[in-house]
Known about the structure:
Elements: H1 2-20, H2 24-46, E1 83-90, E2 95-101, E3 106-110, E4 114-115, E5 118-123, E6 127-131, E7 137-141, E8 146-149
Antiparallel strand pairs: 1-2, 2-3, 4-5, 5-6, 6-7, 7-8
Helix pairs in contact: 1-2
Amino acid sequence: MIFFKFLIFITFVCFSNIALADNHEKKKEVVEAAKEVVNEIEEISDDEEVPLNDPFAGNEGGNSVANNIPEGESEDDMSLYNFKLTGLISGKDHSYISLTSSGGDVLTLTLGQYLGKIKFIDLRLTEAIFKKEDDSYMIIDFNNQIRLADDY
């Protein structure tokens, strides 16, 4: 963006100097100076480093628990292992959490709702607690660490 603003500014200065120039030599000097500035700008823009990954793409494929996923969980789209905890809202009457999938879709759950086969039952300041069908618990925190527990 700065490059284009600078280029427009230089073009404006060049044309205003050409219009005000008294003779052809002055016009040539201004045009040559403008060409030098444009060449310098192009050299600077060629040297800019571009990140190897898109910083706005999210953490697709960056699941920190990818190596510890149980066998049946990896195929299930609604598995907790396919989500990241992105927000908690705890109120007097209602409590909510926001989970973000690896594709960037946001899912908001309130207490008592199901995520696939697990039920969101409680939350703490930095984690959400889900109850599985076998009465064990899954706890996810903001570091995307999922741990299994017999009680919470």
